[in-house]
């Protein structure tokens, strides 16, 4: 474990967890992503069941980075489950075979 990772775990993560829990208590989604070393991320998040698409996109991106396929698959699945129209997206239409 690097010095930055240890410092993050000791000093920052507990504060972010506290903020995440406070937001959740007020019905808010929360997301933080910290790069403590190149390509090394730490994340704290809470997703409301009725979170908006913009938030879901950010959260999926943070969770799946750097795997673009996982991001797109998760986003497509979410849109299907929530009945969100993907017709305005050329990429989503191509990936799903939508007209």
Account of the protein in words:
By secondary structure, the protein is α+β, with helices and mostly antiparallel strands. The protein has one domain (3-87). 58% of the residues lie in helices and 15% in strands. The chain is built from four helices and two strands. It has helices spanning 3-25, 53-64, 68-82, 90-96; strands at residues 30-37, 40-46. Strands 1-2 form a two-stranded antiparallel sheet. Helix 2 (53-64) packs antiparallel against helix 3 (68-82). The protein is flat. The model has no long low-confidence stretch (mean pLDDT 93).
Give a quick rundown of the structure.
By secondary structure, this protein is α+β, with helices and mostly antiparallel strands.
Give the helix/strand layout.
Layout: H1 3-25, E1 30-37, E2 40-46, H2 53-64, H3 68-82, H4 90-96
Antiparallel strand pairs: 1-2
Structural class: alpha+beta
Share of residues in helices: 55-70%
Question: Gap between N and C termini, in Å?
Answer: 49 Å
Q: SSE string, helix = H, strand = E? A: HEEHHH
The count of strands amounts to 2
Q: Which strand order spans the largest sheet, edge to edge or round the barrel?
A: 1-2
Mean pLDDT: 93
How would a crystallographer describe the biggest sheet?
2 strands, antiparallel
> Low-confidence parts lasting 5 or more residues at pLDDT below 50?
none
Per DSSP, the total helix count is 4
Radius of gyration, CA atoms, in whole angstroms: 16 Å
Measured by DSSP, the beta-strand proportion falls in 15-25%
Number of separate domains: 1
Assign an overall shape. flat
